[in-house]
Amino acid sequence: MSNRSSASKESLSKLAIVSCLLLTQFACNETNSVRAQATSVNAQDVKSNSSVNETVSNKLMLDLAVDQGFLDAGKFALIATLKNGYANEISFLPWANPFEENVTADFLTIVDLKAGAELPYRGIMIKRMPPKPSDYRSLAPQKSIRNTIDLSRSYKFCAHQKLKVVFSGALYSQLSTPYNLEVSSLELVLPDAFPDC
Amino acid sequence: MKMIFKYLTSITLSILLTGVVHATPELPDNVQVFTSLEKTSFSINDKLMVSVTYRNVGNQTVSLLKWDTALNGGLTEDLFSIEFNNQQIPYTGIHAKRLAPSPSDFVQLAPGESVTGAVSLQRSYPINFKGYYTIAMRNSGALASKTQSPLAFNLTADRPIIEAKRPARFQSCSASQIASTDAALTSAERIANTAINDLRGTPVALRPSALRYREWFGSYSAGRYSQVEGGMARIASALSNQTIGFNCDCTNQEGVNPDNTFAFVFPNDPYNMTLCGVFFRVPRDGTDSKSGTIVHEISHFNVVASSDDFGSALDQSGSRRLANSSPTSAIRNANAFEYFAENTPFLQMALPADLAVVSATSSKSRPSAGQPVTIVGVISNVGDGLASASVVGVTLSDVSGNVQTAETTVSPLDAGENFDFEINFRAPDALGEYTVDVCVSEVVGESNTNNNCMALTAILVRESVTITPILPLLLDD
Asked: What ipTM is given for this predicted complex?
């Protein structure tokens, strides 16, 4: 009993620390996001994985990953990285995709591979005014932008679920021609820290 | 009203109880349920009654609680699964919370005994649109595995829409916000009902060319049209039959900027929505209006149309582009439901065709009986929409009631297109004067049928003249 209580407190303490980290990271992203809307993505927003001399692929590459630390604390923090493989700067609308501060649309398809069923989206759906030019974000050629977004309140996650996460939304530009977008999917098993369902 | 049958033979069953055999979960074991309809076709003036018979098929008397059965005078629970166009009709009747039952709430059924109750469906299910419905008892009881086949019935005409929304619930709203939102809710109910009537009312043959549908949902397919129709029906039904909850405090939701947001919902939380700053700045009706926003938000709920917001379709021009580029996405676009219902600028569902007989002449005005006659002429589609295939016919009538007809097929005609026709027939055997009318048949959705016929100058059918061969007579002499 005593051990369990102690372990429980330790878990709570760990969770509190991770929650703070989570909040800090999201807050950091918020700061970056605001800064990026005004101009091109600056150095703090960009995680550059490549040199500017890299071959132009003429596509955008969206990579999905998960923060393991948050996952171990029962939080699903999705890390989305977008790389501009075009020769020119691109701009995109960070709405209804993982480059917003919070989830505001059903832009992911998350499948429970064991159950063979899609997790229903439980987040918000927003009717907004059309975007202003300043709502778009820009990304220099061969540069990347990364954002971490909390999915925990938009889906009901359960311990031991084996999930496949696929981006099913879009990156909208002000151009009439859509970008070529290459998307990676993500597979993971949720740890014990998530609730039993 | 109820009747107790001491005994029902299998013959009686086959006549009276047309098919469904199952049990509801609350029923005691060994009680089978049979449903029947008085008839299979109902007008809007008919009472849509369904009879349900409960029969004890066991060896011991059972005590059956009448609550939530058809033995209670009316429905107090969602007993039936009713489908229209492959869509479930939602139960909109009451759910009763009661005290513990008294002895009078039970009916005793001896072995083999049955009891029947009749309930009205239309009080509890919005069965409003003409067409074919299927009905089956909801079944998950012990005897549910027995053979079942849903009953079918036809409603012969649309019921007039009665705008009778339920009072809304308001939270954190000022008096003026309540007033403007309530007016918008009434308007939303009206435009949603108009929208579903327009979708249902468009003849199938004209749906592929229905401008208003194509504008917002893209190219036609029967399956996509059916999905849109089902979604809009559930939007209209929700607005008429559900209590809508409005929260006017938009400041506490992460990710929402009240200054550029109309409203938001959680799709798994029907029928509650939060209204934001833009909502209260826009007019009640028209494009991106209050009423349209309510339609938009209602469409999001999973139990309604499970629609999405598309970042490329946040306004009318974006929604038009989505309809053009991806009809499969457009039919899930919440703004498409909104813009279709708002219908501003106004668009017709389908442009009507208008066939006219523009010319017709007869090859003979005084034919002999049995003599070949030809009528040639031109049929023109003077309307704005495609005319399906039709028939042009000629009718000869005399004062004695003799009538002769002949006809030929007219191919489908685009707007402004002509069709040259030729009808060949033999003059009637009965002599006399005949009026001659040339008519083209009415096509679906035709705007004007006053120009479908043309009266020609009457013809006079004369006695046929037999020419006597003179030469042989001369030779004989």
From this structure: 0.70
